[in-house]
Amino acid sequence: MALSDSVTTCLSLPVHYLICKVGFEKKDTYDINNILSENGEVCWQAVTEHVFYLESDRSVDYIESIRSLGPVCESVYLHFKSLTKEQFVIQYALWFHWTNCTELFLEIFDVLQYTQTTGVALGLMKLTSCLERALGDVYLLIGKDCPFLLRDLLASEQLAVVFGQAVMNVLRVFIGSPYGLNLRNVLWHGFASPKEIPAKYCAMLLFLTAGLGQLLQTYLLQNKCILVHRPYVIFVSLEELDIFPDLNHEAVSIAEELVNLSSFVLKTMIPFWMAALTAFKQSRYADCVILLLPQLEVGLRLLFTTTNKCPNRLLTAEMLAKHLDNEELNQLPAVLEEPAMEFLWDFLNHQEGPRIRDRLSHGEINLEAFPREVANQIVAFAITLLCRFSDEDMFAFKEHMVIKPLMNCASCYCSRFHPVPRLKKQVLECMKSIHLWPELPTVPEERVQTIKGLEGNTEASTLIFMISEILSQLHQYIPQNCCSSDDPINNVLTERLLIELCDIRISTLYSPRPVLEILVVLRKISTRCHQVSEQVIASTELRYKQWMNKTLRSRQRHNYLRMLSSIKFLSPVLRLILVLMTVELVNIHLVCKKNPSDYQQYLKFLKSVLQYTENLVTYTSPEKNKWDETLELTNKTLIKIKRMSDRKLMLMQLTT
Question: Which parts pass through the membrane (predicted)?
Fold first, then answer.
């Protein structure tokens, strides 16, 4: 029998006991009027009396607190079920305004009126993320740099000042502490099945959120301050997230069939998968992704434990790590294969990627405006995993006309948000900018040549000679179709060459620290080169306009002509640096093979090139316009590059 069939819970025994048992041990009927005043305010003192503390260190006794709060939660749940929507809105809506998500909390009230278990779990995930975001806004009334982790936020002095420590301890019983119910983490990481989360805990958190709103209003009035909400994160450049074809109704229907057949899905979790696909069909894209991400994590944990033969790790596994706890190699990446691993790292982990789970679970995204494009990618990727990992024969599904394109896209995916592809994107954009220089408006060439000191410039000739020499040493690393003996500078240092080099696939998984250090420097160099190019373009256009309007003084005219002469030689130098960087990038795996002294010397060299580009930014700025100094500095840097190349200490030559 497949493991996906035999697993009945992903909760460890202690966690299962806390969530499913402890809060039901006391059978008392609790009077709601004990914690709710006649005017509708939460009586916090009565609530905090149910939090118990250990005698040893006065820390929260979570088991006793959960046991005592169990009947209170049940009372709140029954109270909400006794209210009409109109009564709930009148009594509580005002107290949710501080969250900036009033409508969401009103929707959760609707969920509590029914016994749909996936709805309760979804409501709790949305509630905890929005509550965390709102608490972070409150934290910033007093503190700076809001903690990233919910447990650190709830334990902060800043929130204790606003709400009181006893109130924060009540919250920590439900969320934020691994010793409490820890509802947020249990749900967001896919440990709980739909039937394992009692609705009364969702009701209690809804109630507590309203109570926090009442306490906050008092604090704001007393301290004469206003709560400011941080802006939501907006997904920009959605085209970069466009990997899979748009899913139609037929594709989603097939996905529903696959859920029931695939061994990637735990049988206890099938309702979550179905609810996610239903949400997608109903254009509830945030709900779809919130439901689906934890299930992807469950499926990957299941695959991890099967692949590494460690079924006991189903409750704890860190699936994407390179090594297991015993330092053995994690076999999951080999089974998933590099394209799938890169997709997961891109969408979930890389700092410049969308980091969808982080941003959703921490309340950073406006749920009502969640883009279909992002949900489409997650659902499509999930479908490919359902197809790939199954005990059943999935050939017919994989070859289906709406599924096959998804499988093809998944199999050839390359990272887009690791520093390697980000650098590729930077150098291509920079080269595009430099290629605009010849098209810039300019005065006749003979006017440039009449400037004293520029005619027969030996320094410029030296620059061209050195560039040609360096290019000849790069010959073996340049694709044959991009080589040219006829005017190599203009025919080799081209956008076409960079595109060819950037098309070479580079493994990005588990990049070692030296590689990441080098990438940081290379990206800074690329950024500075682009900045220089943009300054040259802006200055050239402005000076030409002033020249034509005859508004330049004599010295400015002279400087303008010097600039035109200088940029003719600066262009190939910048293009050479971009090509060198890209060749280095293609061979960056060699960085792990050199000894520490060679690595440090190479890194020092790169930093000297970075210093050169930083100085260029200054010299080519409209305020400085130091073109003679630019050529002099460029000459010195090319000598360094040539020297490094001669010594065979460039990255791609280290193993020759």
Answer: none
Tokens linked to 460 = 């410029």
Own/partner pairs, 490-496, CB within 8 angstroms, 24+ separation: 490/572, 492/579, 493/467, 493/572, 493/575, 493/576, 493/579, 494/431, 494/575, 495/428, 495/431, 495/432, 495/435
Tell me: pLDDT of 283 over 90: yes
CA atoms of 109 and 206, how far apart (whole Å): 8
Q: State how far the Cα of 516 lies from the Cα of 85, in Å rounded to an integer.
A: 55
Q: Is 421 exposed, middle or buried (0-12, 13-18, 19+ CB in 10 A)?
A: buried
Specify whether the CB–CB gap between 75 and 32 falls below 8 A: yes
CB-CB contact of 651 with 633 (8 Å): no
CA atoms of 192 and 399, how far apart (whole Å): 34
112-144 confidence digits (pLDDT tens): 998 678 999 999 999 999 999 999 999 999 989
Take residue 17 and report the two structure tokens written for it: 């006991």
DSSP string, 502-539: HTS----TT--HHHHHHHHHHHHHHHHHHHHHHHHHHH
User: Are 564 and 440 in contact, with CB atoms under 8 Å apart?
Assistant: no
Contact present, 280 and 299 (Cβ < 8 Å): no
Coil, strand or helix at 245: coil
pLDDT (tens digit, 9 = 90+) per residue, 564-583?
Answer: 888 888 999 999 999 888 88
The answer, yes or no, to whether residue 412 has pLDDT greater than 90, is yes
CB 467 within 8 Å of CB 643: no
- Taking each helix axis as running N to C, give the angle between helix 85-92 and helix 102-112, from 0 to 180 degrees, rounded to the nearest 10: 140
Structure tokens at 359: 């941003």
Question: Quick one: how far is CA 143 from the chain centroid?
Answer: 25
Residue range 609-621: average pLDDT? Answer: 95
Gap between the terminal Cα atoms of the chain: 54
Q: What is the pLDDT of residue 654?
A: 44
Torsion, Cα of 521, 639, 529, 577 (10° steps) = -80
Task: Say which residue the tokens 């990441």 belong to.
Answer: 516
CB under 8 A, 24+ apart: contacts of 171-178: 171/208, 172/60, 173/51, 173/60, 173/62, 173/65, 173/66, 173/69, 174/201, 174/204, 174/205, 174/208, 175/128, 175/131, 175/150, 175/205, 176/150, 176/151, 177/60, 177/62, 177/151, 178/151
Map 568-617 to HEC letters.
HHHHHHHHHHHHHHHHHHHCHHHHHHCCHHHHHHHHHHHHHHHHHHHHHH
Residue 421 to residue 86: CA distance in whole angstroms: 53
Rounded to whole angstroms, the Cα distance separating 467 from 457 reads 16
Distances (CA, A) of 26 to 106, 141, 278: 29, 39, 38
Helices 199-223 and 165-174: crossing angle, nearest 10°? 160
Token output for 233? 């994160």
pLDDT confidence bin for 484, thresholds 50/70/90? low
pLDDT at position 49 over 80: yes
Would you tell me the crossing angle of helices 554-586 and 458-474 to the nearest 10 degrees? 10
CA separation for the pair 124, 647 (Å, rounded): 62
Q: Give kind and range of the element (H or E) at residue 625.
A: none
Contact 105, 74 (CB under 8 A): no
